[in-house]
Design goal:
A 7-stranded parallel beta sheet has the order 26-25-24-23-31-28-27. Helices cover 19% and strands 30% of the residues.
Amino acid sequence: MKASEQDGTYPRPILRRERWHSLDGTWEFGYDDAREGEREAWFSEPGGGGSDREPFDREITVPFPPEAPASGIGETAPHPVVWYRRRIPHDVLAVGDGHRSLVHFGAVDHRAKVWLDGRQVAEHVGGQTPFTADVTDALLPGADEHVLVVRAEDDPADLAQPRGKQDWQDRPHAVWYERTTGIWQTVWTETVPGLHITDLAWIPDPARGVEAEITLAAAPSAPVAVEIVLSHDGEPLAESTSVVRTPRGRVELVVPALRNGIDREDLLWSPERPTLIDARVTVRDAGTSAVLDTVDSYVGLRSAGVGRGAFLLNDRPYYVRSVLNQGYRPDTLIANSGTAELRREVELIKAMGFNAVRIHQKAEDPRFLYWADRLGLLVWGETGAAYEYGTEAVELLTREWLDLVRRDRSHPSIVTWVPVNESWGCSDIANDRAQQAYTVALANLTRALDPTRPVMSNEGWEHTDSDIMGVHDYSSDPELLTRRYGDAAGFEALLSSPGPAGRTLSLDPRQTGRYHSGEAPLMVTEFGGLSVGADDDEFSYTRTGTADQYAALLGDIFGVLRTSPVVAGFCYTQFMDTAQETNGLLDASGSPKLPMETIRAIVTGASPTTG
């Protein structure tokens, strides 16, 4: 299926097969506050080993966390350990001809164990990252149905766990929201050949073509041929076949059409023209040419970088108009209600006049990235932070972050990586060399895994090794903003001062030098935070009394940044009201606080009539 024909329901857009089945829907569910489930073998039948009660005494709608109203439970009190059980008809998991049956989990917060028919098949740590259980060898022969059981553990008091905007206090406060426990992204099955592709990454080179990095489930017992075909609108662009003898292979595809600079423009990806190249990858027996595995994918041919004092898209200066999106929804919290909602969010962001979005303190569902790829929206990829510094926190976040970069690096929409925000998880970075080394290491590990995108070492302030000089400034005084960003001298004064939040912007002279040389452009990557008519128990950075006052102040502060000769882009806080945080351009129901044409005019500077 072509990328342009997908409906966005497939959970892993970059690597698609035909034989899959969603397990979302009604599951049995139970709390385990006494942490007795493993000892009493709740994973066995019937009802759990030595338990004298039925532990799965509730029903939950997956993939919504139990704290979310959409789950059917809506219990926000802390329950560190939860259990799920789902009965699956045999034909969903049935295999033959050497095939394997897999169960994929999009995300389970935070630690997960999985059993199938009483046998443990997976264990995973990381609340935002996917994992897979191969259940083939655990299937009980002759059974009409199979029993899948999941145990999830998420200690709300453990500040070493990456948690993002999930509150550690009993009730949400300020800019932190309800916690998430357990399954919060889709669960699905897939039938695959014994030797199959497990990971597929694309590294585009708009001047030449693309390189594919392919990972197989195991080393092939005999050489295999990996065949890749690229096409656009049904017309072939490039084809390559390589012999692979190891579990990993790299294949370079030269696209002749890119040699012509005029034709190249038709194939490049950008928000204004989000061209996607269809890709089919086939693994064959090198001797017999028999097909072993086939997957469909897509590629966006584009480059992302910085230089000459600007963000560069396809090696040309590109002004970034971004909005912060928390990715929390009233009914589903950190989860989402499906691909239609994700598509609608991308469409709304673009309709407001933004060309980029910063997903804040979470890793969003890959289907959101698919719609950003397809509809044309730049994305700053981020992760949820831990809130203390230490060995455990460093290990947990580093592992989870690298897994997320690996998961998402093939999406052309992602143009910047943000592993750390506002010194969260390294709050003493200004004076602690270990914490400085941590952020530098994260930035360099990211570049080692993906050298094709800018990386932020610490978004907002106290930069150690960032490719963009991102500044968070919530001043609502247009005159003060003009003094800071109206010319180069104004920002030089800010750069040598404690900074807008009393935090030094740069901790390393080399970082300052990168800004001065134009290698690290200046962007105001959080600003605004305006509300209109907010109540006393709601949070915002600046309150306005009426819609007219709101529109006027929005126009003034956007205008200062948009016309600044030194600012290369901005990110407004925020897309939508979230819980008690009423900084959104939309209210919590998704309705705009001003007419959409007015918001678009404020964001872009164009008149409402010309858009």
